[in-house]
Structures are given as C-alpha cells and as structure tokens.
Amino acid sequence: VLENQDLQDSIKPQKVEFHSLNFNTTLRWQPGWAREARDALYFVQYKVYGQSTWQNKDDCWGIRSRVCDLTRETSDIQEPYYGRVRAALAGVHSKWSLSCRFTPWRETMIGPPMVTVVNSNKSITVKLQAPRSPYERKKGSKITMTNYYDLLYQVFIINNLLDEQHRVLVYEGKDKVIKIQDLRPGVSYCVVAKTYVPMLDRSSAYSSRQCTVL
Fold first, then answer.
1. Whole-angstrom Cα distance, residue 196 to residue 112?
2. Mean pLDDT of the chain
3. CB 181 within 8 Å of CB 166
4. Reported pTM
5. What gap in Å lies between CA 96 and CA 102, rounded to an integer?
6. CATH classification at residue 99
7. Alpha-carbon Rg of the chain, whole angstroms?
8. Which residue range or ranges hold the Fibronectin type-III domain (predicted)?
9. How many domains does the chain fold into?
10. In this predicted model, what pLDDT tens digit does every residue of 145-166 receive, in sequence order?
11. E-strand spans in the chain?
C-alpha cells in the first residue's frame, strides 16, 4: 500500500495553469516529480466556480499530452472557472491537482493587431486589424476582440538609421488607419503596434515588424 501511496504522490501533476490568448484557452501542467511520471496518462475535468459537479473533458481523458484545450468550455467569458488534472500510471491514480480560479474576460492576454504598411514619398499609411476571438458570428466570421473590450492601438515607428531599440510612439487611439507624415525619403522605417486595454491597464506584445523604405 505504501508503494502505491508513494507512486500516487510522485506522479501527481504539478503547476496546473490556465493559459489564454484572445480567449483561446488551454489548461497546462507539468508532470509529477518521479522519472516514470513522464509515462503517465492524464485526465482533465473543469467546472464553473460555485458548481458542485465537475465535468469530464472527453478529448482530454487518458491523454499523454500535458495541454488540454478548454476554449469551448470557457466561452462564458465573465464566469470564473477551475480546471483539475490527475495522472494514472500502472493502475495507480494520483490525487487531483487544482488550477487557480480563471476568469477569461479578466485574464486572457490580448494579442497585437495585424499591421499593414503602405508608403508614399514622405508618409506611411498604417492599417490595423484587431485580433480575433475563436467565437463566430452566425455567418461564420470570427468576432474581433473589440466586441469584448474598449481597445486602443499604440503605433510605434523605428527609424533604422537610429538605434534598433528606439521605438517612438506616434499614435494612440481607436483609428484603424493612421497616416505618419514628414518622414525622410530614402530612409528605412519599421512600424510595430500594440493593443492596449485601458480598463485592465494591459498591453499586448508588439506586433511583427512591417518595414518600408521611402
């Protein structure tokens, strides 16, 4: 019995955490500390905070992967959720490992906008597209994150003659098309942008760089 108890403890999943970007939400965990824990199978359940019964996640029942997609199960973005995982090895089940409470609206990370750059001789026109959620309208198009948050765009310009890290904020606001004027012909410029959520005081990562020579 003692050996089983030891095995139970040593294969118990560690660090069960929700990860979420634009409401694409996964539950992730680390294997238990025993070396053989790497061969364990995992079982995932979830529930809304306050509910008494846990729901099995069928696609993540007896899996080897340490990631489980719970995007659909957490689609009520104002609700707080819990996830939990247990491991099984050689007929022995570990105890459940519980995540922290997760509320998608409050905790999902917002991605950067998509940036397109069009240049004319002394100016650059920057076109921005909000990141999209995984949720669809009736006609099948993905709902953008501006439906869920008051988003601002922050647009930065990098003059490649100057230091690489020298990003200048040239615009902050809601416009999707921005014109940056009075630039020097013959100079290479790059544009990056972030999404900013004032209500949560949270910024996205930078978008990928879009570069152009005037």
1. 9
2. 93
3. no
4. 0.88
5. 17
6. 2.60.40.10
7. 23
8. 6-96
9. 2
10. 999 999 999 999 998 776 666 7
11. 14-21, 24-30, 41-48, 55-63, 67-69, 81-89, 92-93, 97-98, 114-119, 124-129, 132-136, 142-144, 152-159, 167-173, 177-180, 188-197, 202-203, 210-213
